[in-house]
Amino acid sequence: MRLLLTYEGYTVRTASQAEEALDILSGFRPELVLTDIRLPGMDGLELTRRIKEDPRTNSIKVVAVSAYAGAGDEQQAIGAGCDAYLTKPIDSSALTSRVRHILQRALPPPTLDAEAEPAVAPSLSETEVEHLRRSFLHEGCEQLRQILDFLDSGFDLERTRDLLHSWAGTGGFTGCPGIARLARTTEELLRAGNYRASELRELLSTLLFAFSQQIADIEVAVPEHVAKSLRGKRVALIGFAPARASFLASTFEEVNSHPRTVKLFDRPDDEPVDEYELAIVHVGQEALASGWLAPDAFPSGMVLICSGTRRDLMNLAPGLQSRAAGFLVETWDPEEVLMHAHLAISRGPASAPAAAPATQAPAGSASVAAAQARTRVLIADDDSLILAVVGSTIENYGMSCQRVENGEEALRQIRETLPQIAVLDVNMPGPDGFEVLAAIRAEKLPVQVVLLTARQREGDILRGFQLGADDYMVKPFNPLELIARLRRLVRR
Questions:
Q1: Are 421 and 377 in contact (CB under 8 A)?
Q2: Which domains does the chain have, with CATH numbers?
Q3: Are 46 and 40 in contact (CB under 8 A)?
Q4: pTM of the prediction?
Q5: Torsion angle, CA of 141/142/145/151, rounded to 10 degrees?
Q6: What's the pLDDT at 438?
Q7: How far apart are CA 329 and CA 320, in angstroms?
Q8: Are 51 and 80 in contact (CB under 8 A)?
Q9: DSSP 162-222
Q10: More confidently predicted of 265 and 402
Q11: Helices 44-53 and 73-80 sit at what angle, rounded to 10 degrees?
């Protein structure tokens, strides 16, 4: 919901509990509140009553959201003061138009312009939905295993009901209706209270199987050479939230690596990090304060990968950027992690470039030497804006840049000029980026290749690396991030 509404231009805040929402309302005055009815602690109906009873907030419209459409539920919501009622799963293509209608229905109808383009409600891209689906499935699978482990002793009824309620809504939105139905059935059983332990175990086990089956359906087979390079490797996962750390650990366990999660409050001096061959550290303010991002936190023989948002990765100290053998932007998928780990292990530990020996250049040769030392980059993309912005950025950072608009011209220029790096759009006309890359490798041209793609599909990522890509970036991207990656390739 946050993604969809942000795309529409709304300013959005989120809260996972009613109490948190009330705290936010003390300093943020929205025009609309969307609230789930069944929240942990104070429910959505009580939250609505408090909003409507407070003269400072009673003008805010409130919409109740529920995974149920039971008789009387909508009447209860309206009776509590809600202005509208939505039932999960919510159609992503219709959500923003519903919100717009709710916010504007008290206003006079707008004058229609006969020549105006019809409004089209935005929807999540396939990439974003796929990322949400993967996170939902892997985290749900891990949470279900924990519930089943403690079912006989230490069973947390309230947490389980909250998770089931969440799965009932998210399952429908992310294209997993079978999981949504099973979760709703199991939640209703728990709310009724008259169930047998064996009956609950059977339902939860069936739900776990449904999660596992969905994961199996979307997973892409990891190439054997990738799995082989990571087999037996000791991997430290540093600073990740528990669910994310568990997700990462299971990803590496599938290729028979030996992962271990490390919390940020475990100081570098207290952890035998020299026992690991690869470390993946989550970048952020907490990591900076913990000492894990200090230049000397990792032994020189260890391969380091940094993970985080684009902003956090771009703000890393130059020394640490040089030290890292790879970067994972926040929306990574399992196959992407394994491919980056494989490439990082294959390249070995990264290090800052050695300083060139000081020599006296002949008079008048400085400009010639500088020109010869400049990194030559070719960028091929049929988007003129990408060519203009990225090309200018590359040149502003001291590199030369050739710009071409199709695969045929890209391949001709690469053969004739042999740039050090070629940045290729996967979807350009003529020979696409994959075909140009395949030709470069078949002809054994000494050119490093970065693929640009708007499709973060695992098949594309794997195909690119199997053909010999050195790196890839998903549009839209920050041009400065591309510069950082180009510099890292040059140092290799």
A1: yes
A2: 2-104 (3.40.50.2300), 126-218 (1.20.120), 229-347 (3.40.50.2300), 368-491 (3.40.50.2300)
A3: no
A4: 0.46
A5: -110
A6: 92
A7: 16
A8: no
A9: HHHHHHHHHHHHTT-HHHHHHHHHHHHHHHH----HHHHHHHHHHHHHHHHHHHHHH--PP
A10: 402
A11: 30
